[in-house]
């Protein structure tokens, strides 16, 4: 059995109630995955190097949770019931497809890229349930447990959901064809994190010279909306970084700016950690 995640923890004595997670950093496909889609096409859903880029958060006394399994197998940033009926061999009452499934990007992706279906046959309820049981629920359980434990100890917890985005939206995206900014912060239009916290993150990126946008087109996916509870001092923020800042999007290799961008993220995470430390 493939382990569904890696949790990297700071020194217990200095650990902050600050958790970074990367649900799309995995690139492993379990043996039961069958598709005629090329490896290069499947890689387009991979948040390449995101785990490595944010590795410095642990040195800043935060936790880092990394997915192992590819989002093309099961998407950890979707609701467990966001299942596209078009993928199923029979009706399943559990399914509650959302706008993501409508675009072929639900819990189990139907499309790898515009016009490129992943499967040439339907999937069974048993197959999807196995993906939920073996990979989805363990990831969410460990994240929930860590957030709850830190909140209980400190009276507050701050969660950052880390992603990368193509430099230009494609036909499956709501910003199809448009160039994207350097950084997009998603706080569900101000509902998933305090304004003060979001501004700290925004200012940290701007100080490093990056162009930052809030909530357009990414407001935050399931992880941010599900784990946020601002009234109870639980804050969740999604950070999307433009892939062109650190990698060649065709070859999936680091570009010459990789190390500088990683250094900048370390400095951003240090600012975030300083803020969280001031709140407890």
Automatic annotation (TrEMBL):
Q: Which InterPro entries match?
A: N-FG_amidohydro
Provide any one GO MF term from the record. hydrolase activity
Entry keyword set: Hydrolase
User: What Pfam family does this protein match (any one)?
Assistant: FGase
Q: Does the keyword Hydrolase apply?
A: yes
Please report the name of this protein according to its UniProt entry. N-formylglutamate amidohydrolase
